[in-house]
Amino acid sequence: MASSFKTRAKLEKNHFGYIFIAPFFITYFVFQIIPLINTFYYSLTDIKAWYVNPEMNYNFVGFDMFKMVLTEASFKRAFVNTPVMWIMGFIPQLLMALLLASWFTNEKIRVKGQGFFKVVFYMPNIMTATTIGLLFLAFIRPNGFIHNIAIAIGYIKNPSMPFTSGWFGRGVVAFINFWMWYGQTMIVLIAGIMGINPSFFEAASIDGASGWQSFWRITLPLIRPIMTYSLVTSLIGGFQMFDVPNMMGNGDNAAMFRFDIQTIVMYIKTIATTGSNSIGKACAASVILFLITAVCSCVLFYLTSDRAEAKAKRMEKKRAKEAALQEGGDL
Amino acid sequence: MANYGQAGQSMKGGYHARIIAMKVLVYIVCIILTILALLPFVIMVFTASKNRLEINSNSLEWAPDIKNSLVVSLLPSKSFFTNGKYLLTSPQLNLPFARGFLNSFIIAAGATILSVYFSALTAYGFAVYRFKLNKVLYTFIMAIQMIPSQVTVISFVELMFKWGLTDSYIPLIIPAIAAPSTVFFLRQYMSSALSIEMVEAGRIDGAGEFGIFNRLVLPILKPGMATMAIFAMVTNWNNYLLPSMLLSHQDMQTVPMLVAKLNGNKYSTEFGAIYFGLTISAAPLVIFYLVLSKYIIAGVALGGVKE
In a designed cystine with B50, which of B4, B45, B77, B292 is the match (CB 3.0 to 4.6 A)? Predict the structure, then answer.
């Protein structure tokens, strides 16, 4: 009797769960789901922006907006620039983070002042990206610090000549991404390495493994899930890249290489707020961005988890075989 | 812990020399990276203290010594307050930074309080109550973490226009109630910090469900909520894309929007004022970071945060 009463009371209480989670879902529906549905819906129309079209008139045009976006030179450029700048920044970011994480967790080196280094390396990450973007734009303008260095090493001959190279511009954006994020990746990787059972390293050391071998054979495989997570979140963030290249490539005093650092989100904002003010086109580009992001992260998750699983299966088979052999030998 | 180094030590000659060489390399790299992390900010502050002539020195014909000008850019000068006064009060340039700080603070604080409180509420709902859709809805929250907000930004602004919410802080604060990654983090946090027995004890004492949450559970979750609050504060303070599309009234603009305005034509010759604007936009974050760096680094290490 008592227990059934208790269960019923519990069941009644369990309805409170819905009340507790209701604000989240109501807010998410109103401010995220409706705009998401609208994005897909508007991408099939020729709707113009709110300030040129307050009545919000529009016609259905099928996939015309997608065709327009996909054939536009400025979209193609943004579509190439964005992943290129992300890769140029992410590869050094991951390598530097791995190197520092392996050093900081190395029992033999025992780096002192780690707390200080972590605080300093992470600092650029919390700074406002618009501030960082404008700061580096000021550095590369004539009389800026980086411009002065370029004169000093003879890369720029005329002191009032600005940087014009597109690859230089992409390099600056990629460098800023690297500079803002390697500290974050390093801290996450250090936490991952610290979480590895120390007895693995002890066993490896007793078996005569070198530091390099135990890093390659123990550390790397075991922090792979964390690296995958870093890779996927960085990729998603990379495709949304906006604040820094926007500060350098937009506005009255934009850099000369402004067209070579246009990103997809910059393209979307430009389409919606200038020229044709086409929300339909901007939403079509948004849908494309959404699909790219979704496909990339699914593929990455699938590849990495699948491979890890296959490897685990192979290892298991091998172990079973060895165990069987040993058993045979014992007999 | 450290014993596994000993075996190699006795076997290999020159072991100590190698370790020392390694240490030297590590510290050299770390010092270079420290300079790399701090130098841009140092130059920013020092250039903010220079007048137009000092900043423009190397493009003037009488100052061809570029190495000298590089060294000079690493030294402070005396015009810091002149530049500040010029940026903040001259009628041609004036940007309402004081107002901008207040606006950014209102938005960031409002969004932070809402996101942390309601995320805790949502996470608690999932952690404590066994309702039918618990698993399905929680999986949904995990999945939507990955959807970037930039994808919907255009139709979000369009919708806010339809509802008459442009030039309002509502679309920048209220949506913070639904913060999937904060819910995820606090749900994880609860599984170690919260025991169901405590909730049961509260019920036996006759407390209501919301009373239990507000008076018993919230105090226990404080450390986890503080971690999330720090990151929510920084993220909302730094937000640029959405405010720049929603707010047009001068008195409503946020700090990142004012920074973006520094890139306008009328500032093109006033580099001292630009650097001053950048410096004051960075200052609150630097102070915030120096005070809370311990918690921020610990929060990053928990891995729950990636914007």
Answer: B77
Q: What is the pTM of this model?
A: 0.88
Of A35, A239, A251, the CB nearest to B159: A35
CB of B183 closer than 8 Å to CB of A24 = yes
Residues of chain A below pLDDT 50:
1-4, 329-331
Whether B264 has a pLDDT exceeding 60, the answer reads yes
Same domain, B36 and B159: no
Domain count, chain B: 2
Chain A, chain B: beta-carbon pairs less than 8 Å apart: 317
User: Which structural domain, as residue segments, surrounds residue A275?
Assistant: 92-311
Predicted complex ipTM: 0.89
B280 belongs to a structural domain: no
Q: What is the pLDDT of residues B213-223, one digit of tens each?
A: 999 999 999 99
* A111 interaction partners in chain B (CB closer than 8 Å): 23, 26-27, 30
Q: Which of B66, B191, B189, B277 has the alpha carbon at shortest distance from A137?
A: B277
* B248 shares a domain with B101: yes
B122 and B187 co-located in one domain: yes
Answer whether residue B271 is part of any domain: no
- Specify which residues A278 forms β-bridges with: A48
Contact A297 B146 (CB under 8 A): yes
Those residues with Cβ within 8 angstroms of residue A283's Cβ, 6 or more apart along the chain or in another chain: A38, A39, A40, A41, A42, A43, A65, B154, B155
Contact of A60 with chain B, judged by CB distance below 8 Å, is answered with no
Predicted confidence (pLDDT) per residue in B161-204, tens digit:
999 999 999 999 999 999 999 999 999 899 888 888 888 888 88
Domain total of chain A: 2
CA distance A74 to chain B (A): 18
CA pair distance A114, A120, nearest whole angstrom: 10
Asked if B125 lies within 8 A of A286 by C-beta distance, the reply is no
Domain of residue B35 covers 2-80
Instruction: Look at residue B293 and tell me if it is in a domain.
Output: no
Q: Is residue B251 part of a domain?
A: yes
Q: Where among B40, B55, B80 does a domain terminate?
A: B80
Give the span between the Cα atoms of B141 and B91, in whole angstroms: 49
Comparing CB atoms, the residue among B149, B288, B297 nearest residue A122 is: B297
Q: How many CB atoms lie within 10 A of CB B270?
A: 20
Does B161 lie at the interface with A, CB-CB under 8 angstroms? yes
